[in-house]
Specification:
binds adenosine-5'-triphosphate; five-stranded parallel beta sheet; 43% helix; binds magnesium ion; single chain; 432 residues
Length: 432
Amino acid sequence: MTTAALSAPTPVQMEPANFLNLLIVDDERAIREVCREVAQSLGFNTAVADSAEHAYRLLDTQNIDVVLLDLKLPGASGLEALHQIGERKPDAVIVVVTGYGTVQSAVQAMKNGAYDYVTKPFSMEELRLLLERVSDHLKLKTENRTLREKIKSKLGFGSIVGRAPEMEKLYRIIGKAAHSSHPVLILGESGTGKEMVARSIHFSGPFRDKPFIPVDCGSLVPTLIESELFGYVKGAFTGAVQSRDGLLAIAEGGTVFLDEVGELPVDLQAKLLRAIQEREIRPVGSTKRIAINVRILAATNRDLEQAVAQGTFRRDLYFRLNVLSLKIPPLRERRQDIPLLTGYFLERLSRDSGHERSLSDDAMKALLAHDWPGNVRELENCLERACAFTSGPVIHQADLPSAIHGAPFIRRTEATARPKSCPWRNWRNTPS
Ligand SMILES: Nc1ncnc2c1ncn2[C@@H]1O[C@H](COP(=O)(O)OP(=O)(O)OP(=O)(O)O)[C@@H](O)[C@H]1O
Ligand SMILES: [Mg+2]
C-alpha cells in the first residue's frame, strides 16, 4: 500500500463501550494504529491484520462485526478480499478504504456489498464520524432484530398487539368471553381495536368454524339494517323481487357483530331485543317467525349509559347486550405499547413492500409524545404514510405527519403521564 497522510489528530473523548468488534486490515502500521485509536475511543474492541491472509485467519476464529478494509493490499485483489470476508462473515459491516483518485473501486466495492467507504488521506474526525454511523447502523439492526423476535413471541393475544397491564386484563376477559355464548358489549374510542377484539372472541371460541358477520349499524340506513338483519320476503317492499335471508339467520351457529350499535334506531332496538330474548326473527313482510341460533357481539364508541339516560337507547337492550362488557383503553393510556405496535406495523409494511424499514430514536420519541386521538388506527395510518414517503431505510421524525412530529416532547397530564419505566427503553433490548 502507498502512503496515506493522516491529517493532524484532533482530541478525542472516551465514549462508553459499544461492544462491537472491529477488524482493521491495512498493511501500513501507522494507519492501523490511528484507526485503532479512534475505534477504541468509540468503544470498539479492535483487532488488526496486515494482510488479507491474516485477516481471514482472524475472521475464522473471532467474532467480528465490522471490518475496515484497505482495498489495496499487497498481493491481494481488494474485491476478492471483500468477497472472502463476506463469505466468512455475511453479517459483518465492511467499510473499504481507497486511495485518492480511486473512488471508482469504492463504488464497485459498494456494489459488491461494502457498507461505506473512506478515501485516503482521511482525518481522524472523518473516520470517527464514519465509525459512529456504522455503530448506529448496527445498533438499529440489532434493535430491529430483537424487536422482531420479541414481537414473534410476545405480541399479545392472537393478532391483538399489546402487553400493557390493561391489555393483559382484556385478554383474560376475551378468553372467558370466547367460551361463553352470552352477548358481549365492546366499548372503546374509535380505532382502539373493537372489531379486532370481536373477531378474537369469535375465532378463539368453539364456533370459530361458523360464520362471523359484522354489521355496521352506523352506516346503513335504518330500513336497510332491518332487512339486512332480519331478511325479507318477496314483495315486502319495492325492489324485493325475491326473498332473502337475514344475517341473523345466515350466521347460524356463529356470531353477528353489531358495530356502532349505539346508532341503531329505537324501533329497531325493540326488534333486536325481541330477537335476542326469544331467539327468533320475523323477516320484513312475513308473518312467520324463524328460529335463530346466533351469538351477538356489539360495539360502540358512544357512552351508552348516557344514551340510556337521554332516552335514545333502550335500557332493556342495554342490559341484554351488556351481560359481559369489556373496555379497550385508548392508546394514550397505554403508551408503553406504542413501540411494540410500531414494530409490528413496520414489520408488516416492510414485508409487504419488500423494503426493510426502521425508526430513528427521534421519530420514536415523537410517536410516544403524541396523544393519538384516532388510537391504533391513527398509528397504523401514520406509519403507512411515513413508509410511503420515506425513501431511505430509516424513518426520521421529519418523515412523520406534521401533527405528530410537531407534538411537544411528552405532554404530562394526569391521563397521559408516562409509566415509571421509560417506554422506549422497552423498545430497545431490555427484556419485558
Ligand atoms: N391491539 C392492536 N394490535 C394490532 N392492530 C390493531 C390493534 N388495535 C387496532 N388495530 C388495528 O387498527 C385498526 C382499527 O382497528 P378496529 O377497526 O378493530 O378499531 P375499532 O375500534 O373498531 O375502530 P372504529 O371505532 O373506528 O370502528 C385496524 O386496522 C386494526 O387492525
Ligand atoms: Mg370498528
